[in-house]
Amino acid sequence: MAIFTRVKMLVSAFALMAVMAGAAFADIVSISTDHPLVAIDLPEGYTVTNARKDGSSYQLQSSLLPVSLIVKLYGKDVYGGAQAALEDNLTRLKAKSDLERFSWRNQDAALAEISFKLGSASMCGYAASVVLPEDAGTVVLLAWAGEADYEKSANLILSTIDGLCIDYGSYFSPGLVTSYAFPAGAGEVPVELDIGGHKIRTALAKNDEEAADYLIEREYEVLTLYANSPAWQEAWKRYYRMIFRDSCDRLRRPAFDIYNALAPSCADETDLAQHLLDWTQYMGYEREKNNSDFASLPSMLLGGGSDCDSRSMMLAVLLRAMNMDSCLFVSATFSHALAGFVSSHPGHSFTAEGKSYLMGETTSKGLTWGKVSAEMDDPRQWIAVTFPY
What we know:
By secondary structure, this protein is α+β, with helices and mostly antiparallel strands.
């Protein structure tokens, strides 16, 4: 692997062109009025500095680090594939590149590590291109920083490109960069689960744990950049959105197998959700020894330890895979996280984006949905992290 060693403030014309794909996508900005699902979940702090009036090209600058981003949209007849589109753009920059072609979301894609000159200044970064579904054209992203700032900016650049979405399914699957670094088809690892006495056999991809750990640690490094930023809450939301997105496809088969084992004996969706809540409450509590202190969901299914935010994320991902509207609530004040999902059953709930979510406490055994400790019953101290539904 040549490129890797395995490793909204949107304003001006860009915001005017943005077409939001519903409330759940409020922080994910569309980059095409013709194809509103073609969007980027950008790290906080990017501002448009230049844009073509026809909406085909945007240049943005991060206020967090000296990172520049160019987004270009081409019609279906302009290029013969992702590699041709990327090579043409890099030729115009007179950039040196290490380009590789691959498939992402069943679409032709290309990714390159690049270096070039702007005047006398040396720049380094990454570039990517993807042919859009239904032969709708090609999107090209180029992101870079000055050579002196590249090392500290690399994760922000990679995270930016990984935020690209090209269809509805890509809101629930690993991004372009992570998919390239950890390709599908790596074989399977058997998983055995015991949920309420139900013995469930399922499987994960062999590289799911490694890939999820990479994504989490990269996104945590980006999150730390916002420690003293007024946008820290929005940065938290994106951090968890990126983990949610990466985890959904990895847990798709376990969710299917869990549902098939439990659903026939459950009275309704809330009953099923309670079985899952009980299961997470009895997981081994363990703080992670990585920088993020967040256990990846594949590692949890393989028997690893977990704490409140990883357990709550596990519930959110599994419930969403079972077609339930789920979310995550995190609190800096309480250093805690709760799961939430929309249910008609009575119980304590918090409201987010006009919906009432029953609260789920994953670290106290025996609690049902809709019950939380009284000292934490202050909605002002919780950040709602909602996901596409």
